[in-house]
Design a protein that fits this description.
With about 400 residues, this protein is α+β, with helices and mostly antiparallel strands. It has 16 helices and 11 strands.
């Protein structure tokens, strides 16, 4: 069995390369040379970096790697991330059986059949947003006028959260998801959002509606604080991920005109194109974190109990052993084996909703904006390298 060097040779996060769609070159090189390797985190602590598709799947499906952030050795990717996990835990930071117990309370809310029933409403929201964005105009910022409000409106509708408060919870989300947020800033944003959701949950006890928060209250199994923590997870993840994936997908298509032309000529291929875009872009660039609970061999390397592991799903999704030519965007590729939503028992609960929103968003944009183009030089687009969820801050477009 191989033993990797104990002195980390690369850092996490690593510097990005010349192409903003690609994982950092150091991680790409590690996947080829030493797919399970040591890295140094923001505070100098060592962790294991796992970069190959089969190894990432192995870790994420192995119960010997824990998601419990209270375990000694758990790798935090920033000071703010460590502080965020000091509060009320959500089920993604728990192991079975407690993880499974809490997750089951939400599984029915995101079943494919139930999500598919929302298609007419999501389509109506997409059309309304584009109507307002294009009325009497020839250009706009796609992020703030379409990509962000679409999933925000949908998750607010599902949860029973007033959309009029979206500026507040989006501001809190930005603080919670910044790599450079201080522990004090994270505390303040988390507490403000927790107080808001606890108060909203109490309102649902007196005035229930058809939202998820009300149904969790009606179950009578969770405290108000636990429901608030679950609401925070769904609210933040439910709009940040799809919003950034939508805008980044549009930009990637504009930078690959042959692929954009293919999609325009074959609109029926949008669902498959979404899978390839999820693979190619993989907006969780910071990786998925675990800690070993016992000694485990991964990729020929022994990871010892108490050592942290970071699964780089963006490099795994570029693994040429799994996806030949993986550094290229190819909308004809069968990319369904991608790991953009994770893998194993902790894989993303909301992926059916994310897929529906992305299908509708891309189809609607391409259908209604046949002359879509970037309104600024590509070099002026600001990428979200400082955020835990990758994307662009704005996307000026014209039509």
């Amino acid at each position: 069995m191989a033993t990797a060097a104990q002195t980390p040779g690369i850092t996490h996060p690593a510097a990005r390369g010349t192409c903003p769609f690609d994982p950092p070159p150091a991680y790409q090189q590690a996947r080829q040379d030493e797919p399970v390797t040591r890295v140094s985190l923001w505070d100098g602590a060592p962790s294991w970096l796992v970069t190959r598709h089969e190894d990432v799947k192995a870790v994420l499906s192995d119960a010997r790697f824990s998601s419990d952030s209270t375990r000694p050795g758990f790798p935090f990717i920033s000071a703010g991330a460590r502080q965020l996990n000091a509060g009320q835990p959500t089920f993604i930071r728990l192991d079975d059986p407690e993880h499974a117990r809490l997750r089951r309370m939400l599984t029915g809310e995101f079943m494919i059949k139930k999500v598919e029933a929302m298609r007419p409403e999501v389509q109506r929201i997409a059309d309304d947003l584009l109507d307002r964005m294009t009325a009497g105009r020839t250009g706009a910022d796609l992020v703030h006028e379409f990509a962000l409000p679409l999933p925000s409106l949908v998750i607010c509708l599902l949860l029973g959260v007033p959309y009029r408060d979206h500026d507040f919870f989006q501001e809190c989300s930005r603080v919670l998801l910044r790599r450079d947020s201080s522990p004090e800033e994270v505390d303040a944003a988390r507490d403000r959002l927790a107080d808001y959701l606890v108060e909203l949950t109490e309102t649902k006890r007196a005035e229930p509606d058809d939202g998820i928060l009300s149904r969790l209250v009606a179950r009578g199994e969770l405290s108000t604080e636990e429901i608030g923590a679950m609401g925070r997870l769904l609210l933040v993840a439910g709009h940040e991920t799809t919003a950034n994936m939508t805008a980044l997908s549009v930009l990637a298509l504009l930078r690959n005109p042959d692929q954009l032309d293919h999609l325009r000529r074959h609109p029926e291929s949008v669902p498959g194109a979404v899978e390839e875009l999820l693979r190619y872009l993989t907006i969780v660039h910071s990786g998925l974190t675990r800690v070993a609970t016992e000694d485990v061999e991964v990729g020929g390397v022994r990871i010892r109990a108490g050592e942290g592991v970071i699964c780089m799903i963006n490099t795994a999704n570029r693994d040429t052993l799994e996806f030949p030519g993986g550094d290229e965007l190819d909308l004809t590729r069968d990319a369904r084996r991608h790991l953009a939503f994770g893998f194993g028992v902790h894989q993303c609960l909301g992926q059916p909703l994310a897929r529906l929103e992305l299908h509708i968003a891309l189809d609607t944009i391409l259908r209604r904006l046949p002359r879509l183009r970037l309104a600024v030089p590509f070099e002026e687009v600001r990428f979200r390298g400082e955020m835990l969820i990758y994307g662009v801050h704005e996307l000026p477009i014209a039509w």
